[in-house]
Amino acid sequence: MDDLRKSSLQFFSDQNLCYADVLPPREVRARIQVAVLSFLKILNSPDPGISHLPLINRKSSNSRVSEGLLTDVSWIFLSHSFCTRSLMRSNAAKAFIRVWKVMEMCFEILIQEKRVTQRELFYKLLCDSPAYFSSQLQVNRTIQDVVALLRCSRYSLGIMASSRGLVAGRILLQEPNQETVDCSACGSSGYAISGDLNLLEGLVMKTDARYIIVVEKHAIFQRLAEDHIFNQIPSILLTAKGYPDIATRFLLHRMSRAFPDLPILALVDWNPAGLAILSTYKYGSIGMGLEAYRYACNVKWMGLRGDDLQLVPDQSLAPLKPRDLQIAKSLLSSEILQENYREELALMMQTGRKADIEALYFHGYDYLGKYIAKKIVQANYI
Which long-range contacts (CB under 8 A, 24 or more apart) does 34-39 make? Predict the structure, then answer.
């Protein structure tokens, strides 16, 4: 590893920090300029060469779990294992060039004081450099390479989260210089969460809720909002319509800091994907690289769980598919799952079955509210 560091671009002295800073545009531009100048200095030296780019390894094998000493929050972080992007290896040459292309684009965005989504950045790169960018996945991975190289967050690079998230219930939200929004009066559509993290950071929030309920599915969120469950159970409803995006996780994390006494309860399908969604809220995501830890919250699993299967008719249970088994295997191979979550996953694999939240409608469309109320009264969440 020492040899790698000596032969690599030494942009910053502190090579052991495995997190991404939230930095002002001026400092990010300075880090990009240092990277470019270091690269040019090596090329113009008496013994010119092209160095590797040292990046923190973002594979699950390099992940660890940190457990807070003074809080109940645990989160994923990345250890000190490095990987490289090299122009000298044929299988990594294009990835090496992509890093510089994305840094160039981010520098221009910051100069113009703009923000773009990852999707907008992909189309710009596709038009400007089609030989190097042919898919959104390539852009997403390269952005994480730049984050790992410069040690700054995506948002600091001028890349804005594309949000799908919604909020409803007993919370008042006020954007700077805007009128207050009462999320209990937003109907089943809810309040759309902005992708602008600066705006979310500046939100003034007030609530008389006693719980935050995180819902996996948009349709379930709509049902609960339409039934005004937040009037029966003083609560805030939040959904990302599936796997959570950064903006939704950011806002939930802000709520957890602003209202630390409110339990955060998750309502997800009883299947490996549902548990993976819950785990992303709870621990973070390796896919976010050096930003994995930043938005972790102490989320509790309310349902569906194995002891709820007695409420579900047998014909509503579906067999696990290969994709379910793949997700389950990935979860079991990680260190993040607490023991009672592993037991739930083991039960899924043992029975070979899964259940959707909607299966509870067997008892009537108003049953979901009763189910949640009973769970809360009995403190039946893990």
Answer: 35/9, 35/11, 35/103, 35/149, 35/150, 36/103, 38/9, 38/10, 38/11, 39/9
What is the phi/psi pair of residue 84, to 5°?
Answer: -135, 160
Can you tell me the distance from the alpha carbon of 335 to that of 61, in angstroms, rounded to the nearest whole number? 10
- Give me the chain's average pLDDT, please: 85
Q: State the catalytic residue, choosing from 19, 123, 243, 361.
A: 123
Per-residue pLDDT, 43: 73
- Show the tokens assigned to 173: 């939200």
Confidence of residue 148 (pLDDT cuts 50, 70, 90): confident
Query: Quick one: pLDDT at residue 7?
Result: 35
User: How far is residue 62's CA from residue 334's CA, in Å, rounded to a whole number?
Assistant: 10
Residues constituting the chain: 382
CA distance 267 to 278: 9
Neighbouring-strand partners of residue 354: 318
* Residue 114 burial by Cβ neighbours in a 10 Å radius (0-12, 13-18, 19+): exposed
Tens digit of each residue's pLDDT (9 = 90 or more) over 320-349: 999 999 999 989 987 778 999 999 999 999
Confidence of residue 84 (pLDDT cuts 50, 70, 90): low
Question: What pLDDT, in 10s, does the model give residues 33-47?
Answer: 998 988 888 777 666
Determine the pLDDT at residue 286: 65
- Respond yes or no: is residue 191 known to be catalytic: no
8-21 CB burial, b ≥16 within 10 A, e <16: bbebeeebeebebb
Does the reported pTM lie above 0.85? Answer: no
Q: How far apart are CA 358 and CA 354, in angstroms?
A: 12
Cα–Cα nearest to 221, from 245, 239, 248, 243: 239
